[in-house]
Amino acid sequence: MIRPEGSQGVDGAMSMAALVERHGGVLHDLGAAGGARHARAGDPAGAQVPAGIRIQSARIERGELFAGLKGLRTDGARFLPEAFERGATGALVSPERSVSAVAAALQARGIDLSGRSLWLHPRPADVLGAVAADVHGRPADRLGIAVVTGTNGKTSVCHLVGQLLDRAELAPAVLGTAGHRLRSARGPLRLAASHTTPDVAALQAL
Questions:
Q1: Nearest to residue 121, comparing CAs of 22, 204, 201, 42?
Q2: CA distances from 170 to 39, 63, 137, 174 (A)
Q3: CA angle 124, 30, 103 (to 5 degrees)
Q4: In what side-by-side order are the strands of the sheet with 117-120?
Q5: Are 174 and 158 in contact (CB under 8 A)?
Q6: pLDDT tens-digit profile of 167-195?
Q7: pLDDT by 10s per residue, the chain, length 206
Q8: Which of 201, 137, 151, 198 is nearest to 173 (CA)?
Q9: Within a 10 A sphere around the Cβ of 159, how many other Cβ atoms?
Q10: Which DSSP string do the residues of 33-83 spell out, in sequence order?
């Protein structure tokens, strides 16, 4: 769900205008004529506070920011229509996109662009981690973090240490190949892992 308008949410998350001011790039208001107008803090598009950020358009939920990154085989910006159809409040993409063409293509599919934005950044992949941290209220600032590296035994060490911290009632979160073990308000939470480390957007959301 989209949080109330303003520069920050109750958990410290930032509006689209504030994110662009901190990380650079240009924010376009897709709801303006052809998306030609730059969005400002007082505009509906600039005032939106993303509820989350994802790099997979198929997993976007209403009010989230879609990061359409270039990959080895395809450009994530190809999936802008799917992301906006699923309710994305905005999208972070590289600047070679034609804003007016994007707006026209979305409108042709019947997508309401009111309050929607397109954030053009010269290095979207480079800023994604910092942007995701701000979207989620910089959770790492309130956590102690340890990383285990090596050739063998990483998973075993992580889970053994996690169990010790559990016994000490320190509510650890353990992320790794064998799955992610977290502590939620309702008790222990286990999530399947598709990769040893989640992508930076998903990691901040955890």
A1: 22
A2: 43, 33, 21, 12
A3: 90
A4: 26-29, 117-120, 90-93, 65-67, 53-54
A5: yes
A6: 888 888 887 776 777 766 566 666 666 66
A7: 233 333 344 356 799 999 999 999 999 999 886 556 677 667 788 999 999 999 999 999 999 999 999 988 889 999 999 999 999 999 999 998 889 889 999 999 999 999 999 999 999 999 999 999 999 999 888 888 888 888 888 888 888 888 888 888 888 888 777 677 776 656 666 666 666 677 778 778 76
A8: 198
A9: 15
A10: GGG-SBP-TTSHHHH-B-S-EES-GGG--TTPEEE--B-SS-BGGGGHHHH
Spatial distance between the Cα atoms of 82 and 106, rounded to a whole number of angstroms: 9
Q: 6: which residues sit within 8 A by CB, 6+ positions away? A: 15, 47, 49
Beta bridge partners of 180: 191
Structure tokens at 108: 């042709």
Cα separation of 38 and 31, whole Å?
11
- As given in the structure block, the two tokens for residue 118 are 């397109």
Q: Which pLDDT tens digit goes with each residue over 21-43?
A: 999 999 999 988 655 667 766 77
Other beta carbons within 10 angstroms of residue 21's beta carbon come to 15
75-109 burial: b if 16+ Cβ within 10 Å, else e: ebbebbeebbebbbbbbbbbeebebeebbeebeee
Contact by Cβ (8 Å): 88, 48: no
